[in-house]
Amino acid sequence: MRKPVIAGNWKLYKTKDEALALIEELAPLVTGVDSVEIVVAPVFTVLPALPAALAGTGINLAAQDVFWEEEGAYTGEVSPRMLLDAGASHVIIGHSERRQYFGETDTTVNKKIKAALKGALVPIFCIGETLEEREAGNTFKVLERQVKGGLEGLSETQFAPVIIAYEPVWAIGTGKVATDDQAQEAHAFIRGVVAQLLGKDAADKVRILYGGSVKPENVKGLMGRPDIDGALVGGASLKGASFASIVRFGE
Ligand code: 13P
């Protein structure tokens, strides 16, 4: 009942021509897959170049961040309306790299989620503990704080489009994927926090993606778990063949 989402976070990779070449490779490999919601997230400057190439492919376009104001004296920022204007339908918010290097907090993440929803963008809301937090036994405490902080003030109706991505920081770019059990445990916990906050119906419906060293070889095991509804893929989304085989995990 929850449609799986496979999203590629291209991070700080791919110029316009490189992005177009990747779509050209990827599109034919995922044609006809309609049981999975497919998303790619290039850098801001590449967004406007992609809608024409994505037309008819079923691949959705996401930005990697958004600012919460519509316009104003905010040098360097991009608003939800501008992302829509560039052709995006989704936006990644609160990625751990933004929390780690650019000062994102639960409060800024919350403002961005609200602005994205108001602007009719689908937020892909990222959370996840560091290795230090996991080893100190604080994983659930951190996840609960991030979920509650990020979703503060949202009604069940406002929350409905939100996609959550659980990305344990220690698994990102390290090749050290969480075990299926570790991921399932965290996802079930996150779903429980959503149930507490917004009710069982909201919790049953929300898609929770796993991110952190997802590869064609490990996606099937992860997707076999009941609370894992998709993947947010970094490195393995930069090649058409590997991303397509992740998208086609069910075959
Ligand atoms: P990797 O798949 O490269 O570990 O990156 C995961 C990630 O951060 C996706 O947002």
Describe the 3D structure.
There is one protein chain. This protein has helices at 16-30, 51-54, 80-85, 96-101, 106-118, 131-135, 139-151, 156-159, 180-198, 200-205, 219-223, 240-247; strands spanning 5-9, 37-41, 59-63, 90-93, 122-127, 163-166, 208-211, 230-233. The chain has 251 residues and is of the alpha/beta class. Helix 1 packs parallel to helix 12, helix 5 packs across helix 7 (139-151) and helix 7 crosses helix 9 (180-198). It is globular and about 45 Å long. 1,3-dihydroxyacetonephosphate binds next to strand 8. Residues 9, 95, 167, 172-173, 211-214, 232-236 line the site of 1,3-dihydroxyacetonephosphate (13P).
List keywords for this structure.
251 residues, alpha/beta, 8-stranded parallel β-barrel, 15% strand, binds 1,3-dihydroxyacetonephosphate
